[in-house]
Amino acid sequence: MQNLFQQFNSLTVLIIGDVMLDAYLWGKVERISPEAPVPVVTVRKKESRLGGAANVALNIMALGAKPIICSAIGDDKEGDEFLEIIQKHNFTSERIIRISGRPTTVKSRVIAHNQHVVRIDSETDKPLKEADTAVLLGKIKELISDQTIDCILFEDYDKGVITPSLIQEVVELANQKNIITVVDPKKRNFLEYKNVTLFKPNLKELKEGLKVNPDQKDKSQLDEAVNKLREVLQAKQVMVTLSEDGVYINSDNGEKVIPAHVRTIADVSGAGDTVIATAALCLAAGLDEFKTAEISNLAGGLVCEHVGAVPIDKQQLLEEAMKL
Question: Quick one: which of 8, 52, 139, 218 has the most CB atoms within 10 Å?
Fold first, then answer.
């Protein structure tokens, strides 16, 4: 296990997807507003963190590998703040394009007494224009030809950075060069990810994407739904996250449900980012899909013990994985 985690340090992962700022307002509620029946939150602390595909990059870095983000943000003050935080984490911003008139995605969470009170989203979900997609694609192709990429990770939040034409061209190129591809999908492009290595929806996304309704506690129903999905997508492996029931993994080598580990859950935000980042590195390091699913499942549970989206602690994950 230590050798596996050591291998992570030599891997480079290209992350393509929707980046965002996660803004947090931490405070106290001591009274109800006289203007409306809502709590008044007295703000004690403000914090901005990297979110979306950038949180996946943080998890990749926390596990010791090198992340490279390819994305698009707005030419606005929120975009400036995003780039400042990127630089603090020593990420390169060379492959992040800025688009005039397009807002940078910001998700602002108000938290009082460790309780999530409300979330305010400022964003667009319009697909990138063809010209902007062409610029992004050019940067991706240049990167793949210039250096060794061990894995390409699509982090899709349906905010418009990932388009069907981008998926098709990148997956084709990756397969030509024997680069593994892993996908964290959303609804809009769900059935566009053909011929990828690992496809990782959650149960809700599986139901909506395939228009099926399997019972997550009935493995035979999961088998049927995921076999259908694999047939449609020609995906080598599908891993479905089942929340408190763990994860389900399906490949040519069989199907298995891996139960969740009992945790004190503080916040589930960011858990999917941690799961896909861990899975990407395990597969890129040559681990089989069932052990990959076990370690990813463990990683997702560990980050749920913290409030807000936080990256995985590599040493803690290694210690827990060695106990399995």
Answer: 52
